[in-house]
């Protein structure tokens, strides 16, 4: 199985801050990397697919980068609705695997 | 509007069985690959199973292989997960998730259904 490791596990930030979350794969996944946002009591929602493509309706303050094994999700100016847990996911294999999640909390 | 709705979650004893359903609307169900993903209480996401559009290609996570069976009925816009020999560690919210056209992400998810395995 392809292992996905996110860092940090949690972070505290203020509205307007720039936030960066990293994700590392245990082997190359080329550009088959997605990011999901999950708020308490809700299902995950796709934010970014294929490293850097924004899903429908996702604001442009979200961006992604990377290739191979190292990837980054950036929120350029954190908004109140962005406080949530973010998961990376590899789709290189149909046997999907997720990172352990990064909880973005209000400072 | 794309919608997925799961049902069938319940409290069941260890060793018991349960059948989950997921109904899709707002899109042509038969055109899309589907997945089940679960989340144990307070934990992260764990992929469970995949099925292709026609049901001929199926994959399972090692943790459920031999106990769970995924299937679909395209005429009824429905996805199923038959869960047998349930264990305490299968306790989770189970989500169905649609595979996007390119097969590179799960683009829409249902709200989930809770399965609790406990004596």
Task: Tell me what the structure shows.
The complex is a heterodimer of chains A (107) and B (119). With 107 residues, chain A is mostly beta strands. Chain A is 0% helix and 50% strand. Chain A contains no helices and eleven strands. In chain A, strands 2, 4, 5, 6, 9, 10 and 11 form a seven-stranded mixed β-sheet that branches. In chain A, strand 4 (33-38) and strand 5 form a beta hairpin. Chain A starts with a strand and ends with a strand. Chain B is mainly beta and 119 residues long. Helix content of chain B is 0%, strand content 50%. The N and C termini of chain B lie far apart (40 Å). Chain B has strands at 3-7, 11-12, 18-25, 34-39, 45-51, 58-60, 68-73, 78-83, 92-99, 106-109, 113-117. In chain B, strands 2, 4, 5, 6, 9, 10 and 11 form a seven-stranded mixed β-sheet that branches. A four-stranded antiparallel β-sheet of chain B has the order 1-3-8-7, with no helix packed on it.
Helix percentage range of chain B: under 10%
SSE class of chain B: mainly beta
Using the alpha-carbon principal axes, give the shape of chain B: globular
Number of helices of chain A: 0
Mean pLDDT score of chain A, rounded?
A: 97
State the distance separating the first and last CA atoms of chain A. 36 Å
Unreliable spans of chain A are: none
Radius of gyration of chain A: 13 Å
- Tell me the radius of gyration of chain B: 13 Å
Tell me the helix content of chain A: under 10%
Oligomer category: heterodimer
- Which percent band covers the strand fraction of chain B? over 45%
Total strand segments of chain B? 11
**Structural class from helices and strands of chain A?**
mainly beta
Order of helices and strands of chain A: EEEEEEEEEEE
Strand content of chain A is over 45%
Instruction: Please report the distance between the alpha carbons of the first and last residues of chain B.
Output: 40 Å
Largest sheet data of chain A:
7 strands, mixed
């Amino acid at each position: 199985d392809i292992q996905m490791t996110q860092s940090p596990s949690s972070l505290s930030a203020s509205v307007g801050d720039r936030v960066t979350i990293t994700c590392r794969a245990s082997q190359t996944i080329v550009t088959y990397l997605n990011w999901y946002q999950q708020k308490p009591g809700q299902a995950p929602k796709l934010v970014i697919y294929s490293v850097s493509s924004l899903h429908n309706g996702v604001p442009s303050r979200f961006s992604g980068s990377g290739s191979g094994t190292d990837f980054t999700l950036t929120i350029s100016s954190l908004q109140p609705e962005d406080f949530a847990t973010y998961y990376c996911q590899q789709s290189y294999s149909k046997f999907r695997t997720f990172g352990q999640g990064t909880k973005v909390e209000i400072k | 509007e794309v919608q997925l709705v799961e049902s069938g979650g319940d409290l069941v004893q260890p060793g018991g069985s349960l059948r989950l359903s997921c109904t899709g609307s707002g899109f042509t169900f038969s055109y899309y690959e589907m997945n089940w993903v679960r989340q144990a209480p307070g934990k992260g996401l764990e992929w469970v199973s995949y099925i292709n559009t026609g049901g001929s290609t199926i994959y399972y996570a090692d943790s459920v292989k031999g106990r769970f069976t995924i299937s679909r009925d395209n005429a009824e816009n429905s996805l199923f997960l038959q869960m047998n020999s349930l264990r305490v560690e299968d306790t989770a919210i189970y989500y169905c998730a649609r595979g996007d056209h390119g097969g590179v992400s799960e683009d829409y998810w249902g709200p989930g259904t809770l399965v609790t395995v406990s004596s």
